[in-house]
């Protein structure tokens, strides 16, 4: 039986424990998508994770849906990310980059030349984005032409190549949480009648083309995928979850990807028991490393790994506890996250959370 503190290998990526850091949007990059210098310290502080899945990062200017998110499509991005990966590696950690295209979850003010966001169909999301002016509803998107889809597949492969040249240990293709690849899978967002819509194989085609192109570029052993089969965040309402994901899990299994990372729960959204049962059933279709994510604590994570998950990824607990693996191993109390400082801003609520012992020392110093 595996514990949270055992080393192992995910495809080509050797990890020192099963406590991973989930991808977390923090909106602190420069407006041109270059990650901020603050990110070097933030990720280094969390290098005791078995694996860091760095925040969702747009593969192209059109892939952006929120203010100040980072990109991975030009040399400037590569140079800045290189400093982050170097600092994590120097500290003994591993880090992969999450490749992101938001699709319809964007706003014209965030798009090149104020254009419409791109999507499978021209159906507007009932969801918010975050622009220079604050929270705004996602704009009405434009349906992609069939021959534009191949260009986006190429953008994913290009971004994966740049991620490796920036020193990442691999990438995670983001096909979860209502963004572009998830929009092609779900029934309410994809009303296409070409080879990318209609039946299950057509709905999964774009994702599998991306996985194949990224794997051809950097190797399947460095390619992971994130899915949220039962998720409803960003106005996803899929009426055929079981059919769609039975097919997708088994196709990903054949491709021998490094890992499948599943957002089982999303903060603030309840998942009915039937949804959790379905997630458990789907797992039988995937023969490979499964990373569980969503509202796990010390006990549930221990149980999950004992029962066969390769690892558990923690989001908010890793923001507030940079030394999370040590705290879990020693049974130390966990600090709470400051909800007001999640998105945007400076080092406050970002790189100023302390390790347990440093926090104790600071408290002792103050009271002496
Ligand atoms: C967000 O920015 O709110 C966000 C980004 C990526 C996710 C989920 C949420 O997968």
What does this structure look like?
The protein is of the alpha/beta class and 368 residues long. The model has no long low-confidence stretch (mean pLDDT 97). It is built from eleven helices and 14 strands. It is globular. The protein is 35% helix and 15% strand. The strands form four sheets. An eight-stranded parallel β-sheet has the order 3-14-13-12-11-10-5-4. A two-stranded antiparallel ribbon has the order 1-2. The protein has a single domain, classed as Alpha-Beta Barrel (TIM Barrel). It binds P-hydroxybenzoic acid. P-hydroxybenzoic acid binds next to loops.
Task: Name a few traits of the molecule.
alpha/beta, 35% helix, binds P-hydroxybenzoic acid, eight-stranded parallel beta sheet, 368 residues, globular, TIM Barrel, two-stranded antiparallel sheet
């Amino acid at each position: 039986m595996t514990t949270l503190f055992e080393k192992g290998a995910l495809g080509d990526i050797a990890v020192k424990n099963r406590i991973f850091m989930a991808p977390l949007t923090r909106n602190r990059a420069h407006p041109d998508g270059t990650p901020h210098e603050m990110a070097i310290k933030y990720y280094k502080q969390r290098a005791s994770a078995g694996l860091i899945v760095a925040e969702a990062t747009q593969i192209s200017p059109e892939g952006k849906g929120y203010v100040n998110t980072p990109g991975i499509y030009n040399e400037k991005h590569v140079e800045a990310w290189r400093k982050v990966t170097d600092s994590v590696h120097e500290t003994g950690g591993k880090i992969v980059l999450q490749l992101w295209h938001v699709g319809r979850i964007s706003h014209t003010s965030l798009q090149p030349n104020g254009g419409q966001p791109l999507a499978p169909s021209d159906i507007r999301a009932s969801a918010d984005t975050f622009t220079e002016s604050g929270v705004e509803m996602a704009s009405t998107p434009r349906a992609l032409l069939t021959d534009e889809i191949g260009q986006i597949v190429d953008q994913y492969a290009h971004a994966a190549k740049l991620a490796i040249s920036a020193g990442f240990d691999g990438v995670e293709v983001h096909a979860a949480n209502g963004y572009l690849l998830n929009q092609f899978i779900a029934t309410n967002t994809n009303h296409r009648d070409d080879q990318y819509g209609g039946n299950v194989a057509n709905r999964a085609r774009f994702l599998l083309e991306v996985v194949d192109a990224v794997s051809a570029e950097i190797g399947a052993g460095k390619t992971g995928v994130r899915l949220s089969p039962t998720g409803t965040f960003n106005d996803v309402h899929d009426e055929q979850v079981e059919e769609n994901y039975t097919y997708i899990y088994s196709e990903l299994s054949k491709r021998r990807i490094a890992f499948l990372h599943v957002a089982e729960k999303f903060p603030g959204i309840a998942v009915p028991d039937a949804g959790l049962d379905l997630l458990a059933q789907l797992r039988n279709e995937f023969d490979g490393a499964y990373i569980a994510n969503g509202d796990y604590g010390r006990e549930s994570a221990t149980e999950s790994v004992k029962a066969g998950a390769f690892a558990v990824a923690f989001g908010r607990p890793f923001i507030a506890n940079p030394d999370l693996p040590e705290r879990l191993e020693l049974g130390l109390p966990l600090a709470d996250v400051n909800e007001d400082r999640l998105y945007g801003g400076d080092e406050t609520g970002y790189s100023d959370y302390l390790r347990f012992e440093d926090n104790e020392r600071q408290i002792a110093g103050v009271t002496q």
